[in-house]
Amino acid sequence: MKKFIISMLSIVLGLIVGGVILKLSGISPLEAYQVMWEGAFSQPNYISYIIIRSTPLILTGLSVAFAFRTGLFNIGAEGQFIIGAMTAAYFGFVLNLNPWIQIPLVMLMATLAAAFYGGLSGFLKARFGVHEVLSTIMLNWIALYLSNHVIFIEGFRRPSMETTEFINPSTSITILEDWKISDMGLEWLSRHEFWQSFMRPPVNAGIFIALLAVVIVWIILNKTTFGFKLKAVGFSPLASEYAGINTRIKMTQSMMISGALAGLAGATHVMGVSKNIAVLAAHEGYGFDGIAVALIGSNHPVGVLFSGFFLGALKYSGQKIQSSLEAPSEVIGIMIGAIIFFIAIPSIFNFVLKSWRKNP
Q: How far apart are CA 75 and CA 63, in angstroms?
């Protein structure tokens, strides 16, 4: 309950800080927040875009939160996301099987590749004592440049383009992709205004995969002996080892699961939205945003679900104030940074919480 209150207070204070920045920029905060609200919920297709934007954030948030709950700090969700996206893009292109086989197979390959990549940092810590923050930061850059290298593989790269070929239609998880542009689909949607607007963006099954991941992570952490051992190692490695738990294996397993979740985010993004990958000059940011999602959600799977939607809505609606009011787009980044800042120093809320308890 205390963590929930701190998260809510941090969000409010973050919005206040954003309002102050807007005011200093000569823009009315109330008008800006009204534009953001309408830009997020006034039309069905806006809600679709928020769901699409939130899906990878929920999965990378789960990735970071899982590592946190087991005593590890996974800064490498960004690199693991890239590995998952790269693997999905490659095998989604070179394989063309029945969709019922192709989709789970490609997703499994992407998840396993990212799990192995995440497990490297766990192994380095368990075997050689290399701190996971250092190893995951380095692995982020390795993943970025590895992805850029793979894009230029002959036959995989689109001619004269710095992107890969698109994945085969049998790999796509976009919902009713062909039906929406068929005569029957166009005729039906023309008679249902809400669904016509809602289905306009590339709505995909990624959100259902993310919801399933939330449930599975919650069960692992709270209802299984395996999850108890992982948390025990994170809480006290020495005590866990004395109790007979192999701490080295558990650290590696924890980072593998964390990496798998981030890789799943990359796979769903490629298979449901982008359909290919491009050369990157810098990180896309989904993995780094996952850290914010995990912190706002108090590292709880359900909290991560709601914070993922919140951050997705904030980022999507934040684009509206730039186009409508010519407000600086950096305001959204400042808001998120302020929220994380307040969450990171919860002691500033102790006085408020103590006063609230004394005078309910």
A: 10
Rounded distance, CA 356 to CA 167, Å? 55
3-state secondary structure at position 327: coil
Which region, left, alpha or beta, applies to residue 300 given φ > 0 means left and ψ of -120 to 50 means alpha? Answer: beta
What would the two tokens of residue 35 be? 């534009």
Between CA 109 and CA 11 the distance in angstroms is: 37
Element (H, E) at 318: helix 301-325
What is the number of other CB atoms lying within 10 angstroms of the CB of residue 83? 29
pLDDT in tens, 111-121: 999 999 999 99
State phi, psi for 277 to the nearest 5 degrees: -125, 155
Among residues 129, 142, 138, 124, which one has the least CA distance to residue 256?
124
Q: How would you class 286 by CB atoms within 10 Å of its CB: exposed for 0-12, middle for 13-18, buried for 19 or more? A: buried
Cα dist. 311→202, 223, 286, 289 in Å? 19, 28, 11, 8
Q: What is the CA radius of gyration of the chain?
A: 22
Domain limits, the chain: 56-309
CB 234 within 8 A of CB 70: yes
Strand pairing partners for 278? Answer: 163
Predicted confidence (pLDDT) per residue in 274-333, tens digit: 999 999 877 888 999 999 899 889 899 999 999 999 999 988 888 888 777 777 767 778
How far is the CA of 149 from the CAs of 76, 78, 107, 160, in angstroms? 19, 17, 21, 15
Cα 173 to chain center, whole Å? Answer: 18
Residues of 248-258 as b/e, b for ≥16 C-beta within 10 angstroms?
bebbbbbbbbb
CATH tag, 56-309: 1.10.3470
CA dist 269 to 9, 203, 207, 228, 234, Å?
Answer: 32, 11, 10, 31, 30
Q: pTM higher than 0.85 for the full model?
A: yes
Tally Cβ neighbours within 10 Å of residue 160. 5
User: Which string of DSSP letters, residue by residue, matches 333-347?
Assistant: HHHHHHHHHHHH-GG
Whether residue 13 contacts residue 335, with contact meaning beta carbons closer than 8 Å, is answered with no
Rounded CA-CA distance 224/226 in Å is 5
